[in-house]
Each structure stands twice: as structure tokens, then as C-alpha cells.
Amino acid sequence: MATEVWDLIRGEKLPHIWCPGCGHGTLMNALLRTLAKLDVNKDDICVVSGIGCASRLPGYLDFNTLHTTHGRALAFATGIKLANPKLKVIVVSGDGDASAIGGNHLIHAARRNMDLTLIWMNNNIYGMTNGQYSPMTPTDMLATTSPYGNLERNFDLCKLVEACGANYVARATAAHPRNISTYIEYALTHDGFNFVEVITQCPTYYGRRNKMGGPVEMLNAFKANTILNTAAAKLPPEQVAGKILIGEFVKKSEPTYLDRYEALAKKLTGGVKP
Ligand SMILES: Cc1ncc(C[n+]2csc(CCOP(=O)(O)OP(=O)(O)O)c2C)c(N)n1
Ligand code: SF4
């Protein structure tokens, strides 16, 4: 029997904590539909998170789930995967969680090409703690900790993860739910470090403070400012400048950490299980 989305939700945990119009809900919807389509066995999946609005997601999913400490989800997930390589381990994280306090874990999980899927919800702000700027808040934008405009520069985490050596890197926005599902499906069916960035809207802290309108206006802005990377490659740079690039940036099948680990174990034991 085909899996229904409702079968994958912990109904008793609802209502969820997210504000009306929060983009994290769109991501959860796309993730659930993809897992239902793949007809996964619940016991084979483990979803791990750190702390933040984004990181509350696993609590609503009826799988093995682990809500850990801020920034450390990838470290816990690495341990889970090494202890039980048969599990499909999915990490969900916010921009603060994975690019600030958890940035070092991200670099090394991607460098190892560790067999994990990281779904990264980038809403350009620390939502849960009332809107401090994050490493993803663009210069000059307002936050509770940058009331006169952010002095820092944000950066492209997809490029960082690519440089670290991940097997798969893709980006979509909450205005592109079909792309989110396509990229998550690929990530969940391939080995190595799979990174899917989803740009989400935080109307409560980022949108309101920066006078971007409500969730609908923020989603329309994502749509209006987005270009697929394959289309962008055919355009002159001035037409791409300032746009959000979405698409699949890296798609390769280099040996993963577990490939190397298993090869070494075989070499040392001659294939005989201790
Ligand atoms: C060690 C530690 N430092 C700081 C915090 C406070 N804290 C909780 S959530 C959070 C930011 C979450 O932001 P993000 O990861 O961008 O997710 P969002 O809430 O925007 O979805 C912070 C700073 C914490 N819980 N633990
Ligand atoms: S504060 Fe922002 S990120 Fe958190 S639930 Fe509300 S809209 Fe979403």
C-alpha cells in the first residue's frame, strides 16, 4: 500500500510552533511528500536537528528523530550513521544552526563526504531568538542586532559545501516546492554528502523588520528574483547579478566516507567479520 503523508506525521504534536506564513512549513510539506513517494520504511530513517525554528521540524515526523544542541546536529548524525550505516540519516538545520555555530561541523561533514543529507533552511535570520542577524543576513539589512543595517557580508554556502567536496549540492526557494522535492529525492537516493539549501521566508522577524510585506510578498519576491543556474549560464553576467541562483550545482559520485571505511575494514580483516 502506498504511503500517505499523514502516516508520516506525529499528529499528537500538532499544532506546530511556526508562525502563519513561515517558509519552514513548505519545506516540511515537500519533504513529507518526497518520503511518501519513496515509500520509505519509517524504521530505516533517522531525522536529526539542532536548535531553532527550522530545527523543530523532526518533532512532527513519525520516524526515528533526534533534537540535539545548537549547531551540533551533523556531529550527532555522523555518529548515528557510523553506528548504523543502514539508516538513512537526514539532518535539518537553520542558517544560524549550520553556518554560524555549526559551520565547522558542516565543513568537515562535507569534506569527509559523509553519507548524510543536510536540508538547510536559510531564512537569513535567527528566527527563534527574535531576529538577530546571521551569517546569511545580507549587508545593510536590519535585524535586532543590526538596527542601523548589517555591517557584515553574507556568503554562498552552496559554494562552500562544493569546495569542501560534497557529492551533491542544490538550491531552491519556498516559492519552488517542486524543485525542493526533486532535489530532496535525488539527495535521499544517492550516497555521500548531499546538501539541499531551501531559502525560506521569516515574515515575523526578517520580513517585518525590513518592510518586505507578508509571506505572499516575500514569496513573490523569491519568484521574481530567481534564475535557474542552467538558464543563468546563457545570460551575460549583468543580467544575473543580484539574482538568486537555484538548481543543481554539483552532482557527482565520488567515494564517500563509508566507502573508504568499508574498504579499509575489508582490507584489514580479509572480509571476515569479527
Ligand atoms: C549554544 C547555544 N547558543 C545559542 C542558543 C540560542 N539559540 C537558539 S536557536 C538560535 C538561532 C536559530 O536560528 P536559525 O538556526 O537560523 O534557525 P531559525 O530559528 O531561523 O529557523 C539561537 C542563537 C542556543 N540554544 N544554544
Ligand atoms: S520566527 Fe520566523 S522562522 Fe520562526 S516560526 Fe516565525 S516566521 Fe518561522
Features:
274 residues, alpha/beta, 8-stranded mixed sheet, 8 strands, globular, binds thiamine diphosphate, binds iron/sulfur cluster
Largest β-sheet summary: 8 strands, mixed
- The helix/strand class is alpha/beta
Q: Can you tell me the residue ranges where pLDDT is under 50 for at least 5 consecutive residues?
A: none
Helix content: 25-40%
The end-to-end distance, rounded to whole angstroms, is 39 Å
Helical segment count: 11
| Gyration radius over CA | 19 Å
| Small-molecule binders | thiamine diphosphate, iron/sulfur cluster
The amount of beta strand, in percent, is: 15-25%
Given the C-alpha coordinates, what overall shape results?
A: globular
What is the mean predicted local confidence, pLDDT?
97
Q: What is the succession of H and E elements?
A: HEEHEHHEHEHEHHEHHEH
Got a strand count?
8
The strand order across the widest sheet is: 2-1-3-4-6-5-8-7
